[in-house]
Amino acid sequence: MEQLLEFFTDPASWSGDTGIPNRLIEHLAIAFLAVLTASAIALPLGFYIGHTGRLQMLGINIANIGRAVPSYAMMVMLLPVMLGLAPVLGYDPRLGLRFLPIFLAMVLLAIPPILVAAYAGIQEVDRDLTESSRGMGLTERQILTGVELPLALPVLVGGFRVALLQVIATATIGAYLAGGGLGRYIIDGIARRDDGMLYGGVVLVAVLAIGTDVLLSWLQRRLTPRGVRIATELETERAGAAAP
Amino acid sequence: MIEIRWDWIANHLDDVAEKTWQHLQLLVIPMVAGFIIAFALAVLALRRPGSVGPVTAVTGLLYTIPSLAAFAVLIPITGLSLMTAIIPLTTYTLLILYVNTVAGLRSVPPEVNEAADAMGYTRSSRLWHVQLPLAIPLIMAGVRVAAVTTIGLVTVAAIIGGNRFGGLGQFITEGLQTDFDTKIYLGAVGSVILAFVVDGALVALQRALTPWTRARTEGS
Amino acid sequence: MRNSRRLALGASLLASLAIAGVAGGGALVSAQDQPTVRIGSDGFYESQLMAEMYAQALEANGFEVERQLGIGARPARVEAFESGQIDLTPEYVGSGLGFYVVGSEDEELAAIEVSGDGETNRVNLQAALDVAGVGATVLAITAGEDTNAAVVRADTAEELGVSSISDLAGVADQVTFGLPPECEVNALCRGALEDGYGIAWPPAQLELLPPCGAEMAGALEGNAIDVAWLCSTQPVIAQNGWVVLEDDLDTQPAENLAPIVRNDFLEGVDGGADAIAAILDPISAAVTTDVLTELGVRIAVDQESIDDVAGEFLASLES
Asked: How far apart are CA A106 and CA A208, in angstroms?
């Protein structure tokens, strides 16, 4: 444990490219980018499924595939592919080594919770509400954006919470393939037999994950109208744990 | 670029079977242990609602410890044994199983609970005979997610544990050590197939346990 | 009542799965009611090959063997050996010695030399183990060795006109290095590059990858790195026509392999260290660099199983 303290009190740990601030930013960057990209894919699909009730099985199956793929395996399989595509698509092969495999694996990991939160959140909106909106003359699009989305927002944020938590914890394996982020401390700590670095990395990841979770949890509560809050607490837990 | 040697796979089916069996063991043991713990905690949540916050926080905390680190940290303590893999795999299931079990038990409409009380059920028989069956859909949803996630995590164990534990993940590490694409893909794709099979089995189990919801699950 | 039957079905299904799991799980953690030798190795296929050879040879001589091959990188395997979880392991005498002495805070250890001669390294490794208080014996070394190699693609060698690591120092800024994460604290890696060859540390472009593995080779092949830290007997080098940069300053130590055995295990053996040596020494003597390379090709290229390759080699020794 003294090694752990040494790690955190050593000024070298806090400076430069390999310092904690930099690694934190790298880690957050990958996590946010992955969740954003996953959202771009999962949200439209989820809203469609939730609003129209069609393509349910597709949604469920996509969610399952995303969860079933072990991230480590996905990353490792993507490596030769990403390296091979570099000359074809014209990007630096080093991106294909240290960024793309882990990034894509994280996107796949983040899709299921967001997708499920999207369609579950929309589906939970009271049908009476949407019916009366239709009766009032609102278009489907207006119903989705004006009625269903605001009411589904807490559930959505719940989905983001789960996605971000999983991505933050799992992005550490990227360091195995020359990646950066907090996983670097864990992989290097193991390789160099430096327990301080290893445990330091673990603590940092845990703090980051919990910190973002607390933040999003606060956001989730802020976005919930009081009356709805009580009713949707259940839905949040269900969707957050991703239940079709 | 990537070449798969199907003949190698055909010649090593017994190896595949062995690794798959090990993978399943590394799935079932943590799931059962995790479920028992999560269920006990969920029942506690019913009696003491205040415990939900702290328990969720602790299981969430355990969940955030990267599996890679957990395995590495445990080797000096539990050695190169199976326990080193099972302990973190179990703790990872806790969050999902706990949250879903609590949600499931809470989803029982209060009128049903009251009716049960009126009919003379004791608290414990009400739990086992009324609340639990109705909670099964949500609980099973959690079990499914936990199972599939665990299958994925088992492969990570192979990075640390080498050839002792890691199930199909061993194919991946061995393939990386000897630059053998076939093994790498066998391990990875095999894990995905296994996950689908297990998920399918769990869905079937759920249907068997809750015939009254069959109409609903198919439609919803 | 129907509910409770469903419940019973579900519960018994779960229970039977659990029992199957526990029963099967029991088989994975074997009982030790007989004196057995637990042999462990690193993840690198060559280490596993040597360990498998030792294992089969000992089994042929009446020992029961428990295998723990492919433990991961050296630090994990050393940890397992020192803490008594394994009794015997193959070690590269150069790197193994370096692991204990280079950069050590213990003066006595730091004074022990890592040389370019295999036998010297073996003797020094034994000395280092004794000083470090690891009760173990280093048996005879293999005839052949497998050294660390800085490898570049053929086109890189041509373009930059490099054939040795010294040449690399001049163009270090223009290339991307692929090095293992432990390189930074490993004086045989960083020390050699920085102090020996004058390559600035850290290199301008550096990617950290597991050494001697498919990832490192793949990255070199895919142009993500230009200089890869591989192992000299890896077939992938010759297969791709890559160029091994000459270690002209002889910074890399002699890396013959030798079995290290725990003394507490030896005490329980009839005949002690001599008995084990009598079984394993002849094997080591027969393992030349050519043998290592040839068997490496069979494992890493032809994808034959390590068990078979080891078994066939041992059989060939008897004829």
From this structure: 17
